[in-house]
Specification:
Blueprint (H helix, E strand, L loop, with lengths): L15 E5 L3 H11 L3 E6 L3 E6 L2 E6 L13 E4 L3 H10 L4 E10 L3 E9 L5 E9 L2
Parallel strand pairs: 1-4, 5-8
Antiparallel strand pairs: 2-3, 3-4, 6-7, 7-8
Length: 132
């Protein structure tokens, strides 16, 4: 049996997620006014920061060609996926997939619904709903 190699320091939490955008003002409006995220601050020349449940989301215009691509998929947890879906749709979000069950877990059903931001970044809302 081999002894595991200690890894220090360990990576233990997400500090920030970068979302590439083309129009910073449009993106700020979408994330603040449509998704309802808490706007933290804007930093020159092309960055804006939001809080999403203790994880910082950084919107930015890529300053190098190799960074100019859609973001990874971000899954935003919501308390009630049906209510969140209705509220976001009422604010103009066009969903590509309505809320649907992805997996039936032992303790809950995993629900997701997908949409895109104004820059084409693919996003999802998700909820693990306890079965009644």
């Amino acid at each position: 049996m081999t002894t595991p190699i200690p890894i220090a320091p360990t990576i233990s939490r997400i500090g920030q997620i970068f979302v590439n955008v083309k129009d910073l003002d449009r993106a700020i409006s979408f994330y603040r006014d449509v998704l309802g995220m808490q706007f933290l601050f804007q930093a020159p020349p092309n960055m804006a920061f939001f809080d999403c449940g203790g994880i910082r989301i950084m919107l930015g215009i890529a300053d190098r060609p190799d960074l100019d691509h859609p973001a990874s998929i971000i899954y935003y947890a919501v308390e009630d996926i049906q209510e969140a879906w209705k509220a976001l749709a009422a604010r103009g979000v066009r969903f590509e997939r309505e809320p649907h069950i992805i997996a039936r877990l032992p303790h809950a059903d995993l629900w997701m619904a997908s949409f895109r931001d104004p820059d084409g970044n693919f996003l999802e809302i998700m909820n693990e709903a306890a079965r009644t």
